[in-house]
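ok so I'm stuck.
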Amino acid sequence: MYFYMKRFFIACLCLLVIAGLTVYYLYKSPALDISSEQYVKLGDKDNLETLSSKLESECGLKYPFIFKAIARKMNLERWMKRGRFTVKPGMTMVDVVRVFRAGKMQTVNLVLRPNATLEAFAEKCGEKLEPDAQDYMFLLNDSAFLDSMGFSRETVYALLLPDTYNVFWHTQADELLQRLFKEYQKYWNEDRTAKAESRGLSPIQVSILASIVDKETNKVDEMPLVAGLYLNRLKTGMLLQADPTVIYALNKTGIHDVHRVRFKDLGINSPYNTYLHKGLPPGPLCVPSKQAIEAVLNAGEHNYIYMCAREDFSGYHNFTSDYDEHCLNAKRFKAELDRREIK
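replied:
not stuck anymore, here's the structure
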């Protein structure tokens, strides 16, 4: 009798130890061998087995068989979703399962900067989000897709408003561009649209002119003056004669790293060459900044039609409505270029 009681006691003790260890691994012991936050990406074809393998290889998952047993008990596979998820040091088995069961996907702050090219935008998206850069470039050159939103391959830069956009990692290229279109529609409210119309411009034309302003000056306080100057030229029927449009035209032909316009460049045969063609070019030269857009909408009222970089190289310009004065300004600037031996 004593012998059986002893065996029963030992069996109960073993069960208690097993239960204690189970509770420990479930609720106390860190499930992952990581020292900082890690991302785990799940696709449409992932299941419990592939998730366990990813956690084991990428995050040092301990005791995968325990993880899978807990996951099945918590019915994880029914709730698994595609996306990018975050796991942290110190998480227990239950904590890890809950991350994927709750579908708490990691979002990404996508920063769209002014003056960016389409290629730079696509590369940034490809780095931050699931689709490749080629997926974005395909849509940015897809006439039918762009036309559905009122843009073309030439005007698509106007769609891309600089800002920080919080999006899910698995957001597809078409979904992101549709999101940006909604933000574009919000930005171009009745007030801004009315201001554009008062200047004889559409929102896209405002973006085109804003991109020229961005290329002419990085001084925000000077942008309204520059915008006003080009608006004056448009009103009087003058050629815009904006050097950035010639640089853009040159770079589109495959001549890269062109930063300064020379006299021989002014004859380039391109609709973007505003030394040859009146009015605005076919589309923006880059992603226009919101500061430049606002500068066009709230341009300074003046009669300036000429500007030349200041000879002090401050980044600012000398403005005038008199051609002879403009020539003197240009002469001083060229003299300073020669003095500094800048070619």
